[in-house]
Amino acid sequence: MLFLLISNAKSKDCLPFIPYGWNDFYVHLPQNTTFCVDVDKTSYTYKTDIYGGRILSDDKFEKWLQVFGDSQVVGLDLDIIDNHYLNKIYNNFNFIIYAAPNNGPYEVINFLTKNNKILKKRVIITFNFAVDIYRINSTWHPTNYVALRDYQLDEIIENPLKFKFLIFKNLLLNKNFTIRRFNNQRMQKLFLNLNNDDIYKNLIKYFEELNQLAINNNFNVTFVVTHPYWLYSKNGNNLILNSNLSNKVYKLICKSFKITNNIDKILISKVSNNLLVDDLTSDKRHIKSKKIYLEDIETLCKDYY
User: Fold this and answer.
1) E-state strands within 74-153
2) Which structural domain range is residue 68 located in?
3) Is residue 149 within 8 Å of 21, Cβ to Cβ?
4) Half-sphere exposure (CA, 13 Å, Cβ side) for 157?
5) Structural domain tally of the chain?
6) How much is the pLDDT for 166?
7) For 51-60, 167-176, 239-248, which range has the lowest pLDDT when averaged over its residues?
8) H and E: helices and strands count for the chain
């Protein structure tokens, strides 16, 4: 039954999943290559640099921005830079996006530390509140969610069926490994059961560590927070916003993240009251890029302080 969890690709030479692997420090896409991934009835092309950063570019742009984060920012539903939510603000830049599924905030810090020689003066670091809120907990570890080692990525691209075998192997040999994903209601309950003080302490600890890294390495950060997909409940084809839950999330965001000398710009996605189920990606765990709109923290948080 496990082998039915991963469907075959619908297009010749395209993968039915996004390949990503763990290298003991962070999670990344295949390095220095081009591949395509089938999502529903659409195929998306991925081109990466030597570090596994996804390249989204247009020949008319000369300037580049380095972006870091997880699957929300990698662009699961696009392969054209104009369709990425960051393009709404940085619409004359190319992007190199060092991001992958299950690449948490501390894995981003590990990347920045290990590869500080490639960092530009300004970088964009994203925080996907839907799941990063759990990844900053000391008990979370990528190996419980990532089936591949990074050295296996090239082989997986050539032989996608081996991916199913490796998931099966992890389920057998790693008692903590899981492919289980909760629905929105379960995710809401999971969040509400967390201790608010513990969440705040974890957020502050992470943000202070990120700020210190920026100071030590003399770079500036635009910090981007995207709100959780699980703020909504499904009602037919509509997504209904849980306003009380939304207020709790935004109060935490606004209380925890503050502008510093090095993290000198913070952008937060605005919650929408009018979303459809089709505004989520095919896995129903990410908001589509076209539905993400960012606003300065000073403007968005004035009602939550």
Assistant:
1) 93-99, 122-128
2) 2-303
3) yes
4) 17
5) 1
6) 67
7) 167-176
8) 9, 14
Alpha-carbon span 186 to 188, nearest angstrom: 5
Overall size of the chain counted in residues:
305
Strands 42-47 and 34-39: antiparallel
Amino acid found at 249: V
Contact indicator for 88, 293 with CB cutoff of 8 Å: yes
pLDDT tens by residue, 60-91: 999 999 999 999 999 999 999 999 999 999 99
> Which backbone phi and psi does 116 adopt, to 5 degrees?
-65, -20
- Sheet with 275-276: strands ordered across: 232-235, 238-241, 275-276
Question: Can you give the pLDDT at residue 136?
Answer: 97
Residues 30, 33, 35, 39, CA torsion sign = positive
Instruction: Locate the DSSP E strands across the chain.
Output: 21-22, 27-28, 34-39, 42-47, 54-56, 63-69, 93-99, 122-128, 220-226, 232-235, 238-241, 265-269, 275-276, 294-296
d(C-alpha 305, C-alpha 298), whole Å: 10
Give the predicted TM-score (pTM) of the model: 0.92
- Residue 13 Cα distances to 8, 36, 56, 78, angstroms: 11, 8, 21, 18
